Amino acid sequence: STVEIIYVLWRSIMKKILKIHRSIVIIIGIIAAITLLALTTGLRLCIVRTTSMEPTITPYSVCLVTTRVRYEDLSIGDIVVFTRASDGEKVVHRVVEMTDEGVITRGDANRNDDGVSVTPDTLFARYIMHIPYLGYIYVFVRTPIGVVTIVALFIALAVLNIATAKREEKT
């Protein structure tokens, strides 16, 4: 029947694509798995771009944070991510005081407090760990040159996979 023919053709095409572009399929699978993990666990990545948290967190570190944090569970010394009211930017700073109005934070390298910066509405996440300097790659990838570099790498990987598949067919 027509359905069986379409199915056989589809399987044949998919087998060739998977054989030739195995590396790309694996990369896409890893990205999908990481995305699914983030969505189901509340884990997120954020970049610290400034020196305000030095020496604890160096600039352009990638921080692993959890969005599954309750405002009531915060305590002095926690490192939190909150949304700054003035511009909507996410900020990573340490809790230095708890008041009735809200939580007061400060960057480890800063002399002055941020004032009441964290309320139940502005709390985004709690810090878990960080990887120093990995944020430089993230920032680079978001530039036009970075996008071109990523596309070029995928094209090179596809060409390499095709050349390898053709070489294997000959032997």
Q: Please state the CA-atom Rg, rounded to the nearest Å.
A: 23 Å
The helix/strand order is HHEEEEEEEHH
Structural class by sheet pairing and helices? alpha+beta
pLDDT below 50 for ≥5 consecutive residues: which ranges?
none
Helicity level: 40-55%
**Widest sheet: strand order?**
1-2-7-3-4-5-6
What is the topological layout?
Blueprint: H1 2-20, H2 22-41, E1 43-48, E2 61-66, E3 79-83, E4 90-98, E5 103-106, E6 116-118, E7 123-131, H3 135-141, H4 144-170
Antiparallel strand pairs: 1-2, 2-7, 3-4, 3-7, 4-5, 5-6
Q: Could you please describe the fold and organization of this structure?
A:
This protein has about 170 residues and is an alpha+beta fold. It is about 45% helix and about 25% strand. It is built from 4 helices and 7 strands, in the order H-H-E-E-E-E-E-E-E-H-H. It has a 7-stranded antiparallel sheet with strand order 1-2-7-3-4-5-6. Strand 4 (about 90-100) and strand 5 (about 105) form a beta hairpin. The two termini are about 35 Å apart. The relative contact order is 0.15. The model has no long low-confidence stretch (mean pLDDT about 90).
Comma- or semicolon-separated keywords:
171 residues; 7 strands; seven-stranded antiparallel beta sheet; alpha+beta; single chain
Overview in brief:
43% of the residues lie in helices and 25% in strands. By secondary structure, it is of the alpha+beta class.
